Amino acid sequence: NPCTTSFQFSTNAQSNKNFQIIIYDITGNFICSHSTTNNNNTINISQLTAGIYFLKLSEGSKSYSYSLIIQ
Q: Are 29 and 46 contacting, i.e. CB atoms less than 8 angstroms apart?
């Protein structure tokens, strides 16, 4: 962080877990979502304009939030 065209994330979860990644803008508006079952991922964000975003990573009942800065 900061990112320009993509970002990577990895988890320690067991294989074949379903992850939901949701990106919101600074005002909380939904921007996009991505689902995956991989522990290592690269997410393309080249379509997003520069600014601050929030990323929510969910797996089952667990949820984590992160800030994402795009240049």
A: no
